């Protein structure tokens, strides 16, 4: 799969350079309407539409998350936007699913007949073709977008042969981290945010339905909503239910494909013995501190090197894009403050002293910053300074204990869910800060490197953890993967090779002793 990804990366980078060239402009301005559409679909427009599809996915999910964090989705839905929301969700599913399949059926149907076109489509679905093409869509978008903004298209050697070998997880991570794994984890995080903060049902009745209960005095929105959900769920709430699965199933498929497709197309990618070897190799790769190509630091420096040769305008555009993380953090903070002081004050803050809440939140942030400073100081202390190392270890231990005690104390003031939301907010803000430091060419700084290494470790566990669980508890998935990828004879050969590799049927070697015969004397 690496060979195909390298080939697509080479073509996408070339398309990114060709789009902004004069030749593309001159050719497009001199073609008639029908030839222009044919040239667009069969040439540079293919990469542009693939990139716009991924951009549309990001606009869709970020729009949903921002609307959920701001409370605008519940406001519009309660004001009568149910029909519009249902229509938009149906239109999204129809456009993303069906309209992308129509060109395949049309092309094969015109050449070989529509019956063969439907058969071809069915065979592609059975052999995990949608997973492969969705993964390749992410490859095209990443390299086309990077070349379009920063330039730097280069030749990538793909080889002329077709090799079948098992790629280790460290190699897969080095190859697909920036183009697929980061984006897949980001989509996963946004989908969980949408599930946590989104509005999928509301009370569609007025409080006057229970006017006698309230003695004709209008209750607060929270009081009426709670009573409506408890006493009038069937008549007032159930007809307004929105299905989260229908709204987000396509995005879940894209996120899962970008994170786990390389393992399905990697020979023996779900085999337990290979998984253990890959895990050890990945841990050794993360722990290596030199700047070679086989270490994490060397790979990280090589991936960020293109920023040194780009323009300020390109870095500014990238910085504007990275603002999406800061907006998510600000939205979480504003949503929490609104719920704390207006919507649900008794459920979020259980204490009447507001200063205690501010003091605990400030102490958590200060201790976290002090831990980062201690990590920076420890990186500057050499191994010969043993006394300073001991003092730093004591300081780290005391700060960690204080952070734990303050977190436990915060549970008396904040709920567990909101305390977890504060840590998520802090993580998103720190990640945005790390991205800004990288754009300012500070990616060699020790703090930025430590944060990036921790982030890569977390992303690696998110991607690799489910694969380890599947290979441990569902070993038949590995056999199914081999049967889908290879024919029956090759699969049988793999099973036989596994037996000999594990010495299940060891070959017995019989040693033959040579009997040396003494030469007879001539006299005898």
How would you name the oligomeric state of the polypeptide chains in this document? single chain
Radius of gyration: 30 Å
Helix content: over 70%
Mean pLDDT: 76
- Topology order in helix (H) and strand (E) letters: HHHHHHHHHHHHHHHHHHHHHHH
Number of helical regions: 23
Biggest sheet statistics: none
Please report the distance between the alpha carbons of the first and last residues. 76 Å
Strand content: under 5%
Strand-pairing-aware structural class: mainly alpha
Query: Which stretches are poorly predicted, pLDDT < 50 over at least 5 residues?
Result: 348-353, 502-513, 515-524
Overall morphology = globular
**Number of strand segments:** 0
In short:
The chain contains 23 helices and no strands. By secondary structure, the protein is mainly alpha-helical.
Key traits:
524 residues, mainly alpha, 23 helices, disordered C terminus, Glyco_trans_48_dom
Structure, explained:
It comes from Phytophthora nicotianae CJ01A1. The chain crosses the membrane at residues 44-61, 82-108, 120-138, 175-197, 323-341, 356-377, 397-414, 420-439, 459-477. This is Glycosyl transferase 48 domain-containing protein. One of its GO terms (molecular function) is 1,3-beta-D-glucan synthase activity. By secondary structure, the protein is mainly alpha-helical. It is built from 23 helices and no strands. The protein has helices at residues 2-19, 22-30, 33-42, 44-70, 72-78, 82-97, 102-112, 114-126, 129-150, 169-197, 221-231, 233-237, 244-264, 272-287, 296-303, 312-343, 345-348, 354-380, 386-410, 416-439, 446-473, 476-485, 488-501. α7 packs across α8 and α9 crosses α13. It is globular, with a radius of gyration of 30 Å. The relative contact order is 0.08. The model is unreliable at 348-353, 502-513 and 515-524 (pLDDT under 50).
């Amino acid at each position: 799969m690496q060979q195909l990804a390298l080939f697509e990366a080479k073509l996408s980078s070339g398309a990114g350079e060709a789009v902004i060239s004069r030749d593309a402009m001159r050719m497009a301005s001199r073609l008639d309407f029908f030839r222009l559409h044919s040239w667009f679909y069969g040439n540079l427009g293919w990469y542009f539409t693939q990139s716009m599809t991924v951009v549309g996915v990001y606009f869709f999910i970020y729009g949903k998350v921002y609307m959920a964090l701001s409370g605008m989705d519940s406001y519009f839905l309660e004001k009568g936007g149910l029909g519009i929301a249902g229509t938009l969700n149906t239109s999204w599913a129809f456009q993303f699913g069906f309209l992308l399949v129509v060109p395949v059926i049309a092309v094969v149907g015109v050449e070989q007949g529509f019956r063969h076109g439907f058969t071809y489509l069915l065979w592609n679905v059975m052999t995990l073709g949608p997973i492969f093409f969705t993964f390749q869509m992410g490859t095209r978008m990443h390299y086309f977008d990077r070349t379009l903004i920063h330039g730097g298209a280069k030749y990538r050697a793909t080889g002329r042969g077709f090799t079948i070998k098992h790629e280790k997880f460290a190699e897969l991570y080095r190859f697909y981290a920036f183009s697929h794994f980061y984006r897949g984890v980001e989509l996963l995080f946004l989908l969980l945010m949408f599930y946590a903060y989104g509005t999928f049902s509301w009370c569609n009745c007025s409080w006057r339905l229970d006017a006698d209960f309230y003695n004709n005095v209008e209750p607060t929105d929270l009081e009426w909503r709670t009573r409506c959900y408890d006493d009038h769920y069937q008549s007032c709430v159930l007809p307004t239910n929105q299905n989260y699965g229908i709204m987000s199933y396509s995005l879940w498929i894209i996120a899962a494909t970008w994170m786990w497709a390389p393992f399905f197309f990697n020979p023996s990618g779900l085999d337990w013995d290979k998984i253990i070897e890959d895990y050890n190799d990945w841990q050794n790769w993360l722990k290596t501190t030199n700047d070679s190509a086989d270490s994490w630091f060397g790979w990280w420096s090589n991936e960020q090197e293109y920023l040194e040769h780009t323009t300020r305008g390109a870095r500014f555009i990238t910085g504007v894009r990275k603002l999406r993380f800061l907006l998510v953090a600000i939205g979480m903070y504003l949503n929490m403050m609104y719920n704390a002081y207006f919507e649900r004050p008794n459920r979020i803050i259980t204490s009447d002293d507001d200063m205690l809440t501010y003091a605990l939140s400030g102490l958590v942030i200060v201790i976290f910053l002090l831990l980062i400073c201690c990590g920076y100081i420890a990186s500057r202390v050499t191994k010969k300074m043993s006394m300073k190392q001991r003092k730093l270890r004591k300081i780290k231990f005391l700060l960690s204990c204080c952070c734990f005690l303050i977190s436990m104390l915060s549970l008396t003031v904040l709920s567990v869910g909101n305390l977890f939301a504060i840590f998520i907010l802090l993580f998103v803000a720190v990640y945005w800060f790390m991205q800004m430091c990288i754009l300012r060419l500070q990616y060699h700084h020790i703090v930025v490197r430590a944060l990036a290494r921790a982030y890569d470790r977390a992303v690696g566990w998110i991607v690799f953890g489910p694969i380890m669980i599947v290979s441990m508890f569902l070993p038949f998935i590995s056999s199914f993967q081999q049967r889908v990828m290879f024919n029956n004879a090759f699969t049988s050969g793999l099973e036989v090779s596994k037996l000999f590799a594990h010495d299940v049927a060891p070959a017995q070697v019989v040693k033959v002793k040579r009997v040396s015969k003494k030469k007879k004397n001539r006299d005898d």
